[in-house]
Amino acid sequence: MVLMQKKQCLGNMILTKALIVYGTRFGATEMTSTEIAEVFQKEGLEVKVVNLKDEKVEDINNYDLIVVGSGIQMGKWTKEPKKFLKKYQKELTKKKVALFVSCGSAQPLPEDEKSSEEIENTKRKYLNEKATEYNLQPIALGFFGGVYNFNRVSWLFKKFMSSIKPQLEAAGIPEKMPGLYDTRNIENIRAWAKEVVDLAQF
Q1: What's the rounded Cα separation, in Å, for the pair 41 and 181?
Q2: Which residues face 65 on adjacent strands?
Q3: Which of 43, 88, 102, 202 has its CA 20 to 30 A from that of 64?
Q4: What is the average pLDDT value for the chain, to the nearest integer?
């Protein structure tokens, strides 16, 4: 849990408290949530960050802005943020809400033949359709790269992913530690977080 305290008057509205909740499989969404929280702090917000696998959120009434993030594996959100959206569906329709996912498809590799249209369709599937499912109208949708962690997958899945590793290395994707490749664009994440704060003013 990260707790950062400060207040800032934004336009005609006092935006003071933000909640970031997430579900992660290999750590990308956790790291992205931390980046977003740091930007929020610099913008003067009090921020709480919650890994929904480790901690339950009992109440969201005191938060002005709520960000929900999930990792994607095999085309699905993690179960914890989905449960959060379902539990607080009614309350979230009255809040400033932003959604984001960490997904390898967001940062296609050079040898990946996905077209921009295919990437937009993937973004629509993971974000727009999820918002519609829970009757939400998010102020922003974030589609960020993911992390390939070959140390935390089964041998079968590792075999399935074996063709990806040479592509990651050829693309110059940094190996943060042996077997872990991070495809996220940190500057894009920070810019998105700043945009979320700006949009939440209105």
Answers
A1: 27
A2: 18, 96
A3: 102
A4: 82
What CATH number has the domain spanning 2-146+184-199?
A: 3.40.50.360
Q: In terms of Cα–Cα distance, which of 95, 89, 92, 103 is closest to 142?
A: 103
Distance CA 126, CA 105 (A): 11
Q: Where are the domains of the chain?
A: 2-146+184-199, 150-182
Distance of alpha carbon 85 from alpha carbon 92, whole angstroms: 8
Q: Which pLDDT band, with edges at 50, 70 and 90, does 164 fall under?
A: low
Report the alpha-carbon distance of residue 51 to residue 35 in Å, rounded.
14
Q: Which residue has the higher pLDDT, 27 or 91?
A: 91
Who has greater pLDDT, 120 or 98? 98
Single pTM value for the model? 0.80
Quick one: pLDDT band at residue 10, thresholds 50, 70, 90? very low
CA distance 40 to 58: 22
